[in-house]
Amino acid sequence: MRKEIEIDGCIEIPPEMTMDEFSNIFLMFIESKGWSFGGGFSEIIDDHYINPDGSKGEHVLE
Three-class SS of residue 56? Predict the structure, then answer.
C-alpha cells in the first residue's frame, strides 16, 4: 500500500538563506526518513513569486 500526503503551505526561512540551501536541507530531511518528495519549490519575497531570473513575478493572491 502506498500513502501520500499533499502539502500546501509556506515555510518562512531566514532572508540570507538561498532557495538551494533550503531545498537541500528539506530534501536531506525527507530522504533521511526513507521518504520521497515529488513536486517543486517557489520562492516568495514580499508577497510576490520570484521568477527564475530573480525579478518579482505575480503577487501570491493573483
Answer: strand
For residue 58, the enclosing domain spans 15-30+43-62
Query: Which three three-digit cell numbers place residue 2?
Result: 502506498
- Torsions phi, psi of 44, nearest 5? -125, 130
pTM exceeds 0.90: no
Sheet with 56-59, edge to edge strand ranges? 44-45, 48-50, 56-59
Is residue 25, in this structure, part of any structural domain at all? Answer: yes
Per residue in 5-35, pLDDT tens? Answer: 999 899 999 999 999 999 999 999 999 999 9
7 within a domain of the structure (yes/no): no
Q: In this structure, what C-alpha cell is assigned to residue 21?
A: 540551501
Q: How many domains does the chain have?
A: 1
Size (the chain), residues: 62
